[in-house]
Amino acid sequence: MMQQILDDITAQMALETDRGKVADYIPQLAHVNPNQFGISVATPDGQVYSAGDANTLFSIQSISKVFTLTIGLSKLGSTLWNHVGREPSGDPFNSITILEYESGRPRNPFINAGAIAVVDAITMGREPEEILDEIIQFVHFIADDASICFDYKVARSEIDHEDRNAALAHFMKSFGHLQYDVDKILNTYFHQCSIAMSCEQLARAGLFLVSNGINQPTGAKVISPQQSKRINSLMMMCGHYDGSGEFAYQVGLPGKSGVGGGILAIAPGKGAIAVWSPGLNSVGNSKLGTKALELLGERTGWSVFSK
Amino acid sequence: MMQQILDDITAQMALETDRGKVADYIPQLAHVNPNQFGISVATPDGQVYSAGDANTLFSIQSISKVFTLTIGLSKLGSTLWNHVGREPSGDPFNSITILEYESGRPRNPFINAGAIAVVDAITMGREPEEILDEIIQFVHFIADDASICFDYKVARSEIDHEDRNAALAHFMKSFGHLQYDVDKILNTYFHQCSIAMSCEQLARAGLFLVSNGINQPTGAKVISPQQSKRINSLMMMCGHYDGSGEFAYQVGLPGKSGVGGGILAIAPGKGAIAVWSPGLNSVGNSKLGTKALELLGERTGWSVFSK
Amino acid sequence: MMQQILDDITAQMALETDRGKVADYIPQLAHVNPNQFGISVATPDGQVYSAGDANTLFSIQSISKVFTLTIGLSKLGSTLWNHVGREPSGDPFNSITILEYESGRPRNPFINAGAIAVVDAITMGREPEEILDEIIQFVHFIADDASICFDYKVARSEIDHEDRNAALAHFMKSFGHLQYDVDKILNTYFHQCSIAMSCEQLARAGLFLVSNGINQPTGAKVISPQQSKRINSLMMMCGHYDGSGEFAYQVGLPGKSGVGGGILAIAPGKGAIAVWSPGLNSVGNSKLGTKALELLGERTGWSVFSK
Amino acid sequence: MMQQILDDITAQMALETDRGKVADYIPQLAHVNPNQFGISVATPDGQVYSAGDANTLFSIQSISKVFTLTIGLSKLGSTLWNHVGREPSGDPFNSITILEYESGRPRNPFINAGAIAVVDAITMGREPEEILDEIIQFVHFIADDASICFDYKVARSEIDHEDRNAALAHFMKSFGHLQYDVDKILNTYFHQCSIAMSCEQLARAGLFLVSNGINQPTGAKVISPQQSKRINSLMMMCGHYDGSGEFAYQVGLPGKSGVGGGILAIAPGKGAIAVWSPGLNSVGNSKLGTKALELLGERTGWSVFSK
């Protein structure tokens, strides 16, 4: 039945003519074919249902912030919150105004400034290579898939267009909110964002947030139940930038979007959903991805806001 | 067992020495004894569990915004969103800056400006008395209790200290975002906020949001399942002003606080919780109320973010 | 020769096709014929040179803020600055954002909030009629012309469209930055703005700022040399809202504009210039008025920034 | 008599106990002895009057922005204004909020972002060395003194603490408001700010702004009368950051301050004043320097706002 739902949604998405606008700030993202659509649902019993382009790799971009946040909470516990807040920002993902208003402390770990601060917090004196090695190993572990890797061309291209993020990083540094070298932090950050995954891989990687911190099919204990709950709350409150309220209203699940067109959504106790379509809406979240999740919610009743 | 939990929490709260700061902007609120604490849980099977001062009346203040939002969605459906947005604001409850930035359109129905816009939207040419009559009848209906009423002394006192809200209302009006007379809208708004309820009454009044729009014990169909889900999402995203992220992180339930020290929280499918303690934390939400809800979550496992 | 200059400028202005946009927020201003243009120069030797519609009455609007500031400094001395700042705001004349950022204290006496605060400061427990009587007497005194009066229809119309200014006033009041009744303060403020004057009257009224506080032709000592200098500095820094830098750059004289299309400019030691044309530029200052003052500067060399 | 005035002022300043706070964001500035005070007045007839530490070199810092603005206007004419605005910002010198609000275009050439944009505008494909060579030659020319040079230790130290300015530069670049390499632009900018001059040298360097663009003693035609007037207007409106209104009010002359404690003020037709004392007031301008200029104004009557 889940398979039928995903097939129906994929068929319906194929008919959509207004597919949003592909991110064009770096060439590697701009060249992606906007007509692609994939969806996968991984359930705690070990099943993965997929439809459309669910095995095509795409750039997960900001979805990676969920993974570095998880690493940060594992390593630092609640002292991570000395580095970054946990309130919705009300501003776009790359806004600097609120950063000035709050003296360089980023609002939450899912806006760019906050994710950069998380990278700084987990650096602990190490070089980018070491941190990136830890990040990719962690992704292998949670997705149970050692084939996942960085897309170095995408990372390179991001570095070549780093100015907005460089501004955020230097700004935080000027307030003493970053400890390490800005160029190295950004290097790590851009590589983290360049990770390429398919919907299937991403859905599996999200399973630990479905079952209180444990990837049930593999039995891997990723994080404590308490932290799992809290990561979900952050995804709900801040996962879609200034479109987070809209996503909560329409979809009703914790989720995190990336500018590559992917979204990872979590239905606690039920399943992890990864959806991907490159065209974005006006606030930078996948247009068809959001729509598909709405339809999935209607068909399955999955929403944290209903019984 | 729920009774035991509430008794334990109440006992623990009695030991707290730092109880926050009672709202003091109007004398009627300032004079409330800060040592009071009450909690009630109403469940879909018709049980109500209570402890502490659960039968003492208090001023529900902004919790009333949940009720007028429900009325607004019932009457206007999705056209209500022409009047008000549904994104967290990232700003305090009475901030005017974001209102200027967004040309007079309030961010969501739970900041003061947004609640005032909801009153304007449901006015439909009527006088304050008629609208207030509708509001109080609605509260009687959902709480199944016709004894609930306005506290006219509180309302009067609010009117006498109206300047911040008058600024918000005139500002919206100057952008054409209010249709009716500012003084009348504010009159309605201040009376709505003055409604006095006990924890028991409030917990019962929240039951319709526990069970997809239906007050199960009474069988009253209050709103559609779709709208119920969405009201919960708004409570989650915006129910605690710029402390909403913190509340989601610590408590993990949709909730709405009032400056009188009350909080209504919803555990879909499980129960409606009303808690009250007059002292507020730095962002204006009940200090012990929030703590009590955290403890309740730990003991019951109620959180929309875990399975 | 000055007469020739003014005639030339008036002739040139008659050829202008892009005359800006007449203020339309109240009907009384919207109906003014945009093709009018007048200019007068009053010199300390008692001469007044005029051209165009220099004897037509127009609504001086915000130019009146120079007069109430002068009254405020006379009555309160430097304690006036407890009520209002003296920095350019960088924001439009009716912005409320900076008012929130600075806790309700207006930046300078020439933005609306600041002028309202000046009215409050000079109220001293009196009724609007008494204050307005003082204001109009003062204008009679400095202009040496007892025929000048309020335009009650304009004032009435402003009151009927008061929302933006009411928002500013209630907002300041909520921070304790206004002492008296908001409705009365606004009543005074709108009448003050409604004063109708001709270019000739206005140029004469400005003479005291040309000669260190003394209206040389009448010998009236209006204010101290120190205060005269300071009023000029405020006109330079803040007289044209967020177009003040542009006016200083293009014209180089202290000046104050009004939304009725008038501008009063002061060339210390040389003369007071009043110019009027109803069409406004994008920041709300008279389009042809500004242009005419630039031309006058080129022809006369009057600028405080050259020798 | 001018000599007497300067001696009196210097004697009076020696008695001041509250001398402000020396800039401490780089060690080279932090180590300067706060008890120093110097003042020089250069007049168009070739006289230079001095008192106190008028021959001690200090870091002119932001005063250098007057010189690069002059170069920019010489080279680019009014097309310079495509790169930067000319309105007071109402914000501190290093604020980034208004830069976001105005899409990366700096408000004026005297805030840091604007000065960086001027450096970019005059770069024209050249390396920092070439531009810096042009800048120092220009300073030699206007001051008639070839001994003036950069302080490379100060420049180095600024580069080591570049984060705030790097944030501004990257931010502008991200909006396409800078054309050249951020690191090179900043390198030029920090060297420009490191120029070391004495009060005597600085007063002479300001003479061209006293006499409509001509350094009268040397006869050097530096810039057109029109541009000279406009540079003065910018100094008046924006020369002291968010203390510009206060400076205009208290001193009444166009001026530009630097965080090294220097101020250059211009009395058109009368003289150029350079004053220096390292302690700063709360908005970053020399505390005693401002006071000394007020006293000078009282004694000489120099103010553009009186006759």
UniProtKB/TrEMBL annotation, chains A, B, C, D:
Complexes and interactors: Homotetramer.
Keyword Acetylation: yes
Annotated substrate binding sites: S62, N112, E158, N165, Y189, Y241, V259
Catalyzed reaction equations: L-glutamine + H2O = L-glutamate + NH4(+)
Keyword match Hydrolase: yes
Gene3D superfamilies assigned to the protein according to its UniProt record, in alphabetical order: DD-peptidase/beta-lactamase superfamily
EC category: hydrolase
Keyword field: Acetylation, Hydrolase
EC number: 3.5.1.2
Gene: glsA
Protein name: Glutaminase
Record-level Gene Ontology MF annotations: glutaminase activity
SUPFAM superfamilies membership: beta-lactamase/transpeptidase-like
Taxonomic superkingdom: Bacteria
HAMAP family hit by this protein: Glutaminase
Family designation: Belongs to the glutaminase family.
